[in-house]
Structure formats: structure tokens, C-alpha cells
Amino acid sequence: MPFPREIDEGRVMRGQEIAKLGQIKRVDHRTYQVNSQSGQGLYTVVRGPRDWRCSCPDHIYREIKCKHIWAVQFSQAIRKTVGESVVIKPLDMQVCLYCSSKELVKDGVRHNKNGDIQRFTCKSCGKRFVRNMGFEHLKATPQIVTNALQLYFTGESLRNVRKFLLLQGVKVSHQTIYNWIAKYTGLMAKYLDKITPQVSDVWRADELYLKVKGNMKYLFAMMDDETRFWIAQEVADSKYVHDARHLFQAAKIVAGKKPNILVTDGLRSYHEAWMKEFRTSKHDTSTVHISHITLTGEHHNNKMERMNGEVRDREKVMRGLKKTDTPILTGYQIFHNYIRPHEALEGKTPADVCGIEIQGENKWLTLIQNASRVRSKQ
Questions:
Q1: What per-residue confidence (pLDDT) applies to 332?
Q2: Has residue 128 been placed in a domain?
Q3: Do 130 and 119 meet the contact criterion of CB atoms below 8 Å apart?
Q4: DSSP codes joined into one string, 278-300
Q5: Domain end marker among 308, 323, 338
Q6: Domain containing 235 — which CATH number?
């Protein structure tokens, strides 16, 4: 027997109130716990393949959409809109770099070894300049440098990138290409560190073995579950005696918060770091640690393993890393978060889902130019 419409509207309104009061706790990607109206119990809301299910009597016996289900759905909508979006736009190169005047005239061409760069003169201030912010004093054009970055981080070796550029009439050594990677990776990393991504409340951590100068090392990484944003990383000499607190501390700084749920394997260093960094007291359970993960089932770490596969593919081409503090890992983290579209995110980058939009057809160019502008103002 259907119930009156006003009862359904009342459930909707009460669900909105519950969501605003923050009386919802997320257990995993499809399970939530909602405080009962008396405040003395919890109801479990689970998202099934077709609809939502709740353990409250209202849903069980009447088979209707209860206020707890409405509350979870409103909470999800609120979480998607929380946080200000950050839009990084390409620089307007149609104005003077010194006075921002639009009164510009072409004034000759600067002939570089690998291409020509147009010079301009500003009628307002009389300054003469070329519009290649971030690429000053380079013989190569910005397009060549960003093409090299894209090729390298999509899987090509330094020497293969050199061969490709040679087909374009650009003669550079593989060492020069590596110097570009080191220079611009550091520049972009300092700029992006000041932007806080709007990650979710579920984080995943895992470790991956690497070879550095032929020696076994381990890459510890933290990733957001919903957006797949690579939050933090560090290279360790050992797996079992490594202190993971540094990784957790770095992740908290980048995200500006700590997660509600942490998913890891059973490595003891994760448990110790969780107790010291994500708990303020013995009775504080604001961050739940799930460490009994499996290959299949409700608790698994498949998303993290997928990212580990990306790093492994990059390392195979390099035949191991040359040093622990290599810019390659930082560069690939930037590529993963801001440049590479992900099929699981419907063709978006993790940064897009986190509210950081990089505009322009050449995202490498947009990031480098904005990072260079910020550096020049400091």
C-alpha cells in the first residue's frame, strides 16, 4: 500500500538535516553508517547493484527509501561540491610581459639552433622581448621541450625521444632531454605543492620494489581511492623496517587532512604509522585502518596495484633508476595526476576529479608557464 506523498517529503527533509549535521560515517566505497534518531545506535546503508538498502525498520518492513538512504545520497552530493575548484589557464601571450599592454608589434625573429622565435616590442613601455616564459635561454622551442616530456613519460626511453626529435630536425643529446626533465619537474613540483587537491576520505597505501643502481629499494606511495590522485611517495632502503610515518605526514600536508579509511596490506610499518599519525588517542577511531586486504572480495587493493603497474612499466624501459632522489618519480607523479587521462575516471585526470583543472591543449606548457610566472614574482 503506497504511503502519502507528504511522508516521503518528510523523509527527504530529515535526510537533508542528517547530511548537514555530519551524522554519516563511510565504511568503504559502498557501505555507510548513519546515526539513529535517538543517537544510541547506528543503521547500515549499503549500495547494491541496483538500489540502496538500509538496516532500519522503516526500510525493511515498508520497503521504501528511508531518511538514512536520503542522507547518504545528499552527503555524496555535498562531498562532490566541497572545495573551491582551481583553474590553471594558459598565460595570455598577447600582452606585454612587463606592463600588460596590448600595444605590441613584431620586431624581428630570434634564430635558434632548433627553430625561430618571434620578437616583440611594446609601444607603451618600449621593452623588447620574446614570448617564451619558462623557456628562456634554451635553444629548443617550448613545443619541442614539452613534446619530449610527453614522449618520455608515456613510456619512451631518452634515446628513443632523441631519435623522434631528430626526425623533426631537432638535434639534441639524451643528456639534454634528461636535463629538461630534471629542470621542469622541479619547477612544476614546487608550484603544484601549493595547491590542495580535494581528495576523498578513503586512501590507499602500498609499496613496490625498484632497482636503484642495481640495488633493491622500495617505493612507498599513498593514493586517493575515488580520484586515484597520487598523494605522496618516498623511496626506502628496506620494506620491513621502514618507518612509514614520513609518508603519512607528507600525505596529510598535501591533502590538508587525514582520511576516514586507510587501506593497506598487513605490513607492520603501516599499522604503526597509522597509530602515530592518524590517531590522536587510543579511543580515537576517526581513521579506520583496513589491513586484511585480499585479491578479490570487499577489501582489496587493486587500484593501488594498477598504479604500481604504471610505475613498473616506466622502470622497465629505464632498466632501473640511477639514484634514489631521481626526478623521474616526481615527474611521473605529475604526469599521473595532471596530464594522463584515466579510463576509470571517464577520460579525466585525477586532478580534474580533485577540482584542479589544467586548461589548454598542451598541459605541460600551461603548468610550466604558470610555475615560471610564480617563480619570477618571488
A1: 92
A2: no
A3: yes
A4: S-SSTT--SSEEE---BSSSSSB
A5: 323
A6: 3.30.420.10
Give every residue of the chain whose pLDDT is below 70, as ranges.
1-9, 20, 22, 29, 39, 76-84, 113-115, 280-286, 293-301, 317-320, 377-378
Rounded to an integer, what is the distance from CA 122 to the centroid of its chain?
40
Q: What's the pLDDT at 4?
A: 40
Q: Which domain holds residue 19?
A: 5-81
Taking the C-alpha atoms of residue 144 and residue 165, their distance in angstroms, rounded to an integer, is: 8
Question: Residue 274 corresponds to which amino acid?
Answer: W
The C-alpha R_g of the chain, in whole angstroms, comes to: 26
Handedness of CA 67, 72, 77, 82 (dihedral sign): positive
Report the distance separating Cα 198 and Cα 218, nearest Å: 28
Q: Which phi and psi (to 5°) does residue 175 adopt?
A: -70, -35
Per the document, the length of the chain is: 378
Residue 24 lies in a domain: yes
Of 33, 51, 81, the residue that ends a domain is 81
Nearest of 153, 107, 147 to residue 126 by alpha carbon: 107
Q: Give bridge partners of residue 35 from the DSSP assignment.
A: 42
Nearest to 130 by CA among 101, 109, 100: 109
In whole angstroms, what is the distance from residue 180 CA to residue 109 CA?
24
Phi, psi of 3, rounded to the nearest 5 degrees: -95, 160
Structural domain includes residue 62 = yes
Number of folded domains that form the chain: 2
Query: Quick one: pLDDT at residue 320?
Result: 64
In whole angstroms, give the CA distance from residue 291 to residue 298: 12
- Does 308 reside within a domain? yes
User: Which of 298, 224, 236, 233 has the alpha carbon at shortest distance from 262?
Assistant: 224
Predicted confidence at residue 337, as pLDDT, reads 96
Select from 130, 142, 255 the least CA-distant residue to 205. 255
Question: CA 82 to CA 164: how far, in whole Å?
Answer: 44
| Local structure of 264: helix, strand or coil | coil
DSSP label of 89? P
- Work out whether strand 86-88 and strand 356-358 pair parallel, antiparallel, or are unpaired: parallel
Specify the pLDDT at position 377: 64
Is residue 72 classed exposed, middle or buried when 0-12, 13-18 and 19+ CB atoms within 10 A define those classes? buried
How, if at all, do strands 261-263 and 288-290 pair? parallel
